[in-house]
Design a protein that fits this description.
By secondary structure, the protein is an alpha/beta fold. Helix content is 25%, strand content 26%. The strands form four sheets. The chain has a nine-stranded mixed β-sheet with strand order 1-2-3-13-4-14-18-16-17, sandwiched between helices. Strands 11-12-20-19-15 form a five-stranded mixed β-sheet. Strands 5-6-9 form a three-stranded antiparallel β-sheet, with no helix packed on it.
């Protein structure tokens, strides 16, 4: 099995380099490039070679990497899917708002379902995508930007003005969640304050910036905690730990019995209904195109899909010792207990008994424990990538994840050894 401390250190480095979805994809690209993968242009005619290593980027925020089988166009696929996005605060256009004393706040919008009060009193900064003028209107230029130093904070209201704050504190997304960024001398100085800062970082003119997708992130690095570094705490464990695990397994396995695929989608936290999301045909089109490039026909594609299996990797809720009543009495995974198979009777997950058995057997072969998550019957559960993808592709597969605490907090927590367990299972799956 992977060395636990080395694996934890690698994951923390990945998380620190990936504060938003665009940076996560950029980080994955860097690892793929270093491993000899070739980037594909979706508008070009592909010439794929058996045994070749390739990747495709969508919207700068989703990435699909694969190694081509040497066994023919109908050999099938082994797929691990995950997602690049996490709940956060995104900056609106014309964001600057000036208040008493020249204090400038930024107007932000909530993305996904974060635990809002965890964003208060944290050193925050800005990262994301900036779109600049290109050669013509249909082809603007994209740059990725990240400010490493803290630029913002969302200060809490003092308890003296809200004595009941610890008894429950309803929050307004529009009023309470606005971060402060600067003090200016006059109202005119606030105009384009953010764009001027971004332009300086990119070395461009403010007028060259046409639009942006910028988000806030906590600048506190990932770290381990516990007497023996048992725990790892960071932002975005959901779902970047699964992205890192899938990437590591793809890079460290060699089998070409089937085409091995890592599919990292965007916008899972908002329903996956974008061109780079799991509800789009992007993966189905990619798999069909791979079969065609190997000389196969539609019949070969359908036969290949029938031979395939997908691991939908999205993290699971770990048993919280302070809130035992929130969990199913017999199916609650614990931190450190290994990968979690996620089950739902109402088909919120793609897991069924057959696919759960497959993944359990993979864990057995890898020599790692596995466990199960089922919702408490009085608590509604969410869905994830697996069942969304099966509406596009007739795939066998399982939904699984690593057990974490405080899902959707600005900082989530997991057991360090669970990531080593997961990578061992993923590598076994790819090497079957």
């Amino acid at each position: 099995m992977e060395d636990i401390k080395v694996t934890a250190r690698n994951l923390m480095e990945f998380l620190n380099e990936s504060p938003v979805n665009f940076l996560a994809v950029k980080t994955v690209r860097r690892h793929l490039d270093a491993a000899g993968f070739t980037m594909l242009d979706p508008a070009a005619r592909w010439q794929l070679q058996p045994g070749g290593k390739y990747y495709l980027v969508k919207n700068s925020s989703a990435i699909f990497a694969f190694t081509v089988t040497t066994e023919g166009p109908d050999a099938g696929f082994r797929i691990i899917s995950a997602h690049s996005d996490s709940p956060c605060l995104r900056i609106k256009p014309k964001a600057e708002m000036i208040s008493e004393g020249g204090v400038v706040r930024l107007n932000v919008e909530v993305y996904g379902g974060p635990i809002l009060y965890t964003w208060f009193d944290r050193p925050l900064s800005v990262a994301g995508r900036v779109v600049l003028r290109g050669e013509d209107p249909l082809h603007p230029r994209t740059e990725i930007v990240k400010f490493d130093r803290p630029l913002l904070i969302i200060p809490h209201l003092a308890i003296h003005f809200n004595r009941a704050v610890n008894e429950g504190n309803p929050l307004s997304k529009q009023k309470d969640m606005l971060p402060v960024i600067a003090i200016v001398r006059d109202a005119a100085e606030k105009d384009n304050l953010l764009l001027r800062t971004v332009a300086d970082a990119l070395g461009c003119r403010v007028d060259d910036i046409l639009d942006f997708d910028l988000s806030l992130f906590d600048t506190t690095p990932a770290c381990t905690v516990g007497l023996d570094d048992e725990f790892l705490t960071s932002g975005r464990l959901d779902d970047l730990s699964m992205v890192h695990g899938a990437m590591t397994a793809l890079l460290e396995t060699l089998s070409t019995a089937q085409t091995r695929v890592m599919a990292v989608f965007d916008n899972e936290e908002t329903g996956s209904g974008t061109k780079q999301g799991a509800a789009s045909p992007v993966l189905a089109q990619l798999l069909r195109r791979i079969v065609g490039c190997l000389g196969g026909c539609e019949e070969d594609y359908l036969r290949s899909i029938d031979k395939s299996f997908m691991i939908s990797a999205d993290n699971a809720h770990a048993f919280h010792p302070n809130y035992a009543e929130k969990y199913d009495p017999t199916n609650h995974p614990v931190v450190g207990g290994g990968p979690v198979i996620k089950i739902n009777a109402n088909c919120k997950y793609m897991t069924d008994a057959e696919s759960a058995a497959v993944f359990r057997s993979i864990c057995d072969k890898a020599g790692v424990p596995c466990q199960y998550f089922v919702n408490h019957s009085d608590v509604a559960g969410g869905s994830t990538l697996g069942n969304i993808l099966t509406s596009q592709i007739d795939l066998r597969g399982v939904d699984m994840g690593e057990a974490i605490w405080a899902m959707h907090s600005i900082r989530e927590t997991m057991a360090t050894k669970d990531h080593a367990y997961t990578i061992a299972a993923f590598k076994t799956f790819f090497d079957l």
